[in-house]
Structures are given as C-alpha cells and as structure tokens.
Design a protein that fits this description.
Rossmann fold; mainly alpha; Tyrosyl-Transfer RNA Synthetase; about 475 residues; about 45% helix
Length: about 475
C-alpha cells in the first residue's frame, strides 16, 4: 500500500529504513555535551551530587524505560503515534540480540489505573471494562511479557502507593501548587492557587498529589528514560527533583550506602499532535461526543475509510499545508506523514500532492492508516473473547515481574530510612522474591516463565538501530543506586 503511492514513487522516501527512524526527538532535553564527555555540569537537568560511593554507567550500556497509559479503553490514532508505536519499537528491538550485543535494555509498560481514580464518576463495571480494553489494546499492537519487557496493571503492584506515601513526606506543596495538571483538570486558570475559593471547593487530594504517584511509578523501577509528550515534562522534572531530594536526604545519614534512586531523563516523541477529524482545530480526543472525530486503533478498514472520507476539509482545490487557513487538510497531511514516518516536512509532502483531488487524497491517507494499523483489530477481538484467557495470563505474569523489581527497590528505600522489617517471615519472603529475580538491579528470567522473543525481519535491523541511536543520543551518565545491605 505505502510503496505503491505516488508520493513514494517520486521521492523514494519509503524505504523500510525510514519507517522507524524518528523514534524520539533530541530537543529540547538532550543532555549537556559536557556531561556526555564526563565533565561536571550544573543546571536544570543536572545529576545527583557527586559522591565517592556512587558508580556510573551510561545509558548505552543500560537503558531502563518506564511509561504508562491511563485505562480509557481503546487508544486512538494520536495515542498510538505519540507513544504506543515507540513502545512497540523498544519492545521489538530489546528482544533482538543482533541489535543489542552486550547491552541491557529493559522496559516497563503499565496501565496506570490508580491514576484514573481521580475521575470518580466512572462506575466500577465500566472501569473494569476500560482496564481490560486498554491492556488488550497494548497486546494487540504486539506488546507482551518477555525477558526484557514487563506489561502490567499499576494496581497489581501495591508498592506504587507505598512509595508514593514515602515520597509525599518530602514533596513540596508549593511545588505541587504551581503544577498545571490539577488546574487544567478543574478548568482553572494557570495562575490559580490553593487560596482560590474555586480551587478549595473543587480540588481533591488525589488530583493534587497526582504527580507524586507518577514519580513513584518511575522511581520504583529505577527508570533511566521516560517517553513522554511535551505536556508531561513538568511531571518528569518533579520526579527528578524528588529523586535528588531523597538521595540527598539518605546520603546525609552516617549509615547510608549511597544513592537509592536513579535520576530519570525524559524522551520526547517526534510525532506531531493529531487533531480531530471533525474539529481540526482541537486535539483528537476520546472525550469528544462524536465517535467519527477519532480513529481508534481497533477500527476496521471500512470504519477507517468512512471516518477519513467524512473528515472536515474545505472547498479549496488541491492539497496544501496551512494550519491556520486549511486546518482539516493540514491535519490529514500530518496523519499521512506520521503513519508512514516520512522525514520530509509536511509542507513538502503537500507540495508533492498539490494536484490531487481531495477524494483521492483522503483515499491515500485512509489506505496508509490501514497499513499502519494492520492486524490490530483482529488481535484485539481475539483477546477480548471471554473464552480466551491469554489476557489474564499475561496480566498475572506482568504483575509478578513488576513486583519483584518493586520489592527490591522498596527494600532499599526502607533500609535507607531505618524501616527494615524485624519480622523474619517478611524478610525471608522478600529475600526469596529477590533471589528468584537475580542479585542486582536487572531483571532475571523467572524459572516458571516461558520467555518469548519477538521475531524481527532482517531488513528492519538497520532501521531499528538508527531509531535507537536517536534515542541514545539523549543518554548520559547516570548514578547507579547502591542498595544497603539487609540487616
């Protein structure tokens, strides 16, 4: 489908290597060059304070990714292009030993259902269905539990809330009050504060402390890289601040064994924001009452063609890219550019297609979207079949793997605070869980788990390598946490 388009024939841009080459953007959060060269540097994204006890490893040697998605049901095309496609790339590449060599790449992908509780108006049976659809959608795009990938529900790992409480004891309310998350959720102005009567009447503690739970999600798995959209950078900065504050707090104690948390880095997706098909000046969203305004990743070929055929454009002939004057057409150009991962500017793509009729252009966009989402619908339907237990098995396996890593982190956190357990049975259980998953901060193979590797076409190796190279350019030396010995 893609290779047969007029656009591909003219420019020869759709070689397979181009399909995955824009995994993450390098700007604006590429680590300082001084840091990459091992020189000291101070600034907003600086590392922990130097300590003689800590030792460093580069992300090129070890990359651990954490990312989560709220259980709002089936993701739409914007969700897929902005985040989920990158998850799949990381998942596939980490299972290809030809690409990794001696490096260690782990990733934790979570359905963060505890975050969704801030929307308290969702009935229990509806939330249960949305959680299941979200997990099935991730599996339908090709994610599953392997030696390198952990796919799990946040609520299945109680350490998330335990660590959240501990981090809450050092989190600044002044910092939290300046964050935009709770203000936007309550439709308040950016300059609103806790002294506002409207904020006092509407704001709940869970929504206000949302960033603390998000920080706990990231730090619990010692993530070195967090793929996010630009609107989440404030939260990653907060997580970094908490990690540094906690490390500094425990290092000041005589019995301290060094840092507990790694300081994570954000990685921005290169995909542009996808707009509504019916209201092209607004972002594509599942909250839009018109289902034809969005493309779900589980839509059938017929549904995709019908939605794009009905997309709002204009009466001006030909194709051009002008967000202000032709938002509908420009949105379709952006969709075409992102589903095919073209490296050309959208203006150049529109120029190449300027003489096409709108009908033919919409057909081209729809065909390429279908190609991008090929097979997702059928796999999703199979997983959602009540008689199919694959989803339940995967969720249980992911929970086990996530708990092992979480237990290890929480043991280090508690020991550093003097909260180590005096209960022999608790210590024995912790030690057994950690022993099964290895002695260091890596994820070892569970003896009861069948590890499945993702097969990758030989022709994609160069493409994935190039994509990972772009991601690794954001890498820097990070502080390896040193756990205290159990007493």
């Amino acid at each position: 489908m893609i290779s047969g388009s007029r656009l591909a024939r003219r420019h020869g841009l759709l070689k397979w290597r181009n399909l995955c080459c824009r995994c993450y953007s390098e700007a604006p959060l590429r680590p300082p060059q001084e840091w990459l060269e091992g020189k000291p540097v101070r600034g907003q994204w600086d590392s922990d304070e130097n300590s003689p006890e800590q030792h460093e490893r580069t992300l090129l040697q070890r990359r651990r990714v954490f990312s989560g998605i709220q259980p709002t049901g089936v993701p739409h095309l914007g969700n897929y292009l902005g985040a989920l496609r990158q998850w799949k790339l990381l998942h596939d590449s980490s299972a290809n030993t030809k690409l990794l060599g001696d490096t260690k790449h782990d990733q934790f992908f979570s359905v963060v259902d505890l975050h969704a509780l801030t929307s308290s108006d969702v009935p229990g049976h509806v939330r249960r269905q949305l959680r299941r659809e979200s997990y099935a959608s991730l599996m339908a795009i090709g994610l599953q539990n392997t030696q390198q990938t952990t796919l799990f529900f946040q609520s299945d790992v109680t350490a998330h809330t335990e660590l959240m409480w501990i981090l809450s004891t050092i989190a600044s309310t002044g910092y939290l009050s300046r964050m935009t998350q709770w203000k936007s959720k309550l439709n308040l102005s950016d300059d609103a504060d806790l002294h506002s009567d409207e904020a006092t009447a509407k704001l709940k503690l869970g929504l206000f402390s949302y960033p603390v739970l998000q920080a706990a999600d990231i730090l619990l798995y010692q993530a070195t890289l967090v793929p996010v959209g630009a609107d989440q950078l404030q939260h990653i900065e907060f997580a970094r601040s908490l990690a540094r504050s906690f490390n500094s707090h425990v290092r000041s104690r005589p019995e301290s064994g060094g840092n507990v948390f790694r300081v994570p880095w954000p990685a921005l997706s290169a995909a542009q924001r996808i707009m509504s098909l019916k209201r092209p000046t607004q972002k594509m969203s599942k909250s839009d009452p018109d289902p034809k305004s969005r493309i779900l990743i589980t839509d059938t070929r017929e549904e995709i063609h019908a939605k794009i055929k009905g997309a709002v454009t204009d009466s001006e002939p030909g194709i051009s890219y002008d967000i202000d004057k032709r938002p509908g057409v420009s949105n379709l150009v952006d969709i075409l550019r992102n589903v095919t991962s073209l490296s050309l500017a959208p203006e150049a793509i529109a120029k190449d297609l300027e003489n096409m009729t709108m009908r033919a252009f919409k057909e081209m966009v729809a065909d390429n979207v279908c190609q991008c989402l090929e097979g997702v619908h059928d796999r999703f339907e199979e997983l959602m079949d009540p008689s199919n237990q694959t989803l339940n098995i995967e969720a249980e396996e992911g929970a086990k793997k996530a708990r092992r890593v979480a237990i290890r982190t929480m043991r280090s956190v508690k020991n550093s605070l003097g909260l180590e357990s005096f209960c022999a049975s608790s210590n024995m259980w912790d030690r057994e869980m950690i022993r099964e998953s290895g002695t260091d901060n890596t994820i070892a193979e569970d003896s009861n788990t069948t590890i499945r590797y993702i097969t990758t076409k030989e022709g994609t190796a160069d493409a994935i390598q190039e994509a990972l190279a772009g991601l690794n350019k954001q890498s820097s030396q990070v502080d390896e946490p040193e756990t205290t010995k159990p007493q």
